[in-house]
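Why should sequence recovery work at all? Because a backbone constrains its sequence more than one might expect. Tight turns favour small or flexible residues, buried strands favour hydrophobic ones, and helices have their own preferences. The token representation captures these environments compactly. In the example below, the structure is given first.
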């Protein structure tokens, strides 16, 4: 679009970020106004949860650079004690870089490459920009049919998301990118956040959330001055900045990492097409010094492959598991118990930071651990599922010295899993008693109808119960007492499910069957084994709290 009357789309002053007020209203705000009203907002929202993750990190990049810090814990504490974010600093900073926040700028459009084109000078449909499943159905339900155009605000949100979570696979080949072969850009991996099992701690307001995630610079790789977001770097062209890929200079660099080269096509009023090409490649190994929003797992396979002594990889989320089942790697107190050897997992450093300032924010401060990630198909070329869950905890559970309380929480999660397996075993035994023949050669990942269905039922039943129980853990909680409380709660729920299962078993199950030519299995046998398994899983369920010992 050309013309003297065309003014572009300034993201500093034009609404584009989606947020929710403390009264529950959904609003669309400019970047600066979002910062100004952060203490009145519950948080960001988006068309998909991964948009929230990407947009929050963009705001963090702005804040880090606007305040030139935080420089140390003392600087952070002063920010926390203020009622509002330092909006004057943010306004001055954004004004200095205003030319880089115009979505449609001719020379340096926001997070895009001016003049990006293919040999055939073609653009793709907008579905390429929007996260969708392999069969083309969008994750969100308010958009039906083919996407022929987007508002500038929508397009801005999806550009930020694309750099963070775009699938791998073949891309359009940009003229000027030496990696292109026969007009195609061959896979370089997903957007950076696509590698992560994202963990975003959220507070009472957006202001609190941003400050909880605003970690002071600790040296690491590069200095504050070298760790710059995309809008402080020279505008990129179609090629990589450094042949073979450059090393991220720090957290801020990763928050706005340009995994793709993008250009929007528009008619002056709406976006009508998009060109997405390969951008900066990046590998996930050992990025824990600069990436705070994921847990990490030690990978012996990568250590052998790279011939390195210790290699950590991002700990991705399992779409089949609720957030509480992966609680241990997110608790600094659990990580501290691993000893001095190279730990099998590392807690997200953002949670380590919250543990450091727990006395400042208060042990009873409510924190919602929001887990967000993307699950991809073969070769990470397609989006399969967006993973999003959350659990409410009091800040005391993130303390490094809350060992007994953390141990209790982690053990009760294990106990819940053992109780779920007990119900699964009951279902399998009842099935055998009724004549069902399971596949004895099935591996750990193979499905077993009766067993797996019962385990899923157990987890669905325990899910709201353990979330409520975790919220009861405070600084005054006696660990042994709440351990017994959870065992009794879980016993009641799973025992009821088991009794119903036995009561609904067919008459043939009461007579039973000889299994494997060796043992008789009847409903009575199955029930007796179930009670034994459940007692083993929940040993404190029948014990008075004054008798609980370890």
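From this structural description, the recovered sequence reads:
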């Amino acid at each position: 679009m050309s013309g003297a009357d065309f003014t572009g789309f300034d993201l500093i002053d034009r609404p584009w970020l989606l947020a929710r007020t403390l009264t529950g209203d959904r609003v669309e705000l400019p970047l600066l106004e979002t910062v100004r009203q952060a203490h009145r907002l519950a948080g960001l929202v988006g068309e998909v949860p991964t948009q929230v993750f990407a947009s929050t990190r963009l705001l963090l990049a702005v804040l880090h650079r606007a305040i030139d810090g935080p420089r140390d814990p003392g600087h952070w504490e002063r920010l926390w004690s203020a009622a509002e974010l330092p909006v004057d600093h943010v306004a001055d900073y954004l004004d200095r870089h205003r030319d880089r926040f115009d979505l449609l700028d001719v020379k340096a459009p926001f997070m895009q490459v001016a003049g990006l084109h293919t040999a055939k000078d073609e653009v793709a449909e907008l579905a390429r920009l929007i996260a969708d499943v392999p069969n083309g159905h969008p994750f969100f339900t308010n958009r039906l049919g083919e996407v022929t155009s987007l508002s500038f605000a929508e397009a801005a949100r999806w550009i930020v998301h694309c750099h963070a979570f775009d699938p791998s696979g073949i891309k359009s080949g940009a003229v000027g990118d030496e990696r292109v072969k026969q007009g195609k850009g061959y896979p370089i991996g997903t957007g950076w956040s696509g590698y992560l099992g994202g963990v975003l701690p959220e507070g009472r307001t957006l202001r609190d959330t941003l400050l909880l995630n605003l970690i002071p610079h600790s040296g690491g790789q590069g200095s504050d001055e070298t760790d710059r977001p995309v809008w402080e770097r020279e505008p990129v062209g179609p090629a990589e900045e450094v042949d073979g890929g450059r090393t991220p200079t720090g957290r801020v660099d990763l928050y706005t990492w340009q995994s793709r080269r993008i250009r929007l096509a528009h008619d002056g009023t709406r976006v009508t097409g998009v060109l997405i090409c390969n951008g900066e490649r990046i590998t996930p190994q050992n990025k824990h010094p600069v990436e705070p929003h994921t847990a990490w797992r030690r990978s012996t396979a990568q250590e052998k492959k790279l011939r390195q002594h210790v290699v950590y990889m991002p700990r991705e989320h399992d779409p089949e598991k609720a957030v509480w089942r992966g609680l241990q790697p997110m608790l600094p107190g659990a990580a501290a118990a691993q000893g001095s050897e190279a730990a099998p997992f590392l807690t997200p450093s953002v949670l380590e930071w919250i543990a450091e300032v727990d006395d400042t924010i208060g042990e009873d401060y409510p924190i919602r651990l929001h887990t967000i990630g993307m699950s991809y198909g073969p070769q990470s070329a397609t989006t399969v599922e967006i993973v999003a869950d959350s659990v409410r905890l009091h800040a005391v559970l993130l303390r490094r010295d809350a060992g007994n309380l953390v141990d209790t929480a982690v053990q009760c999660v294990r106990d819940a899993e053992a109780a779920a397996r007990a119900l699964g075993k009951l279902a399998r035994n009842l099935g055998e008693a009724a004549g069902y023949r399971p596949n004895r050669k099935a591996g750990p990942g193979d499905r077993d109808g009766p067993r797996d269905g019962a385990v899923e039922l157990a987890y669905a039943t325990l899910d709201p119960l353990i979330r409520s129980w975790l919220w009861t853990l405070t600084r005054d909680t006696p660990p042994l007492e709440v351990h017994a409380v959870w065992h009794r709660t879980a016993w009641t729920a799973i025992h009821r499910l088991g009794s119903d299962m036995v009561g609904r078993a067919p008459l043939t199950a009461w007579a039973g069957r000889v299994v494997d030519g060796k043992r008789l299995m009847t409903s009575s046998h199955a029930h007796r084994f179930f009670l034994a398994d459940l007692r083993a899983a929940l040993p404190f369920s029948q014990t008075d709290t004054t008798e609980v010992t370890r």
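A few observations help interpret the result. The mean pLDDT is 92.
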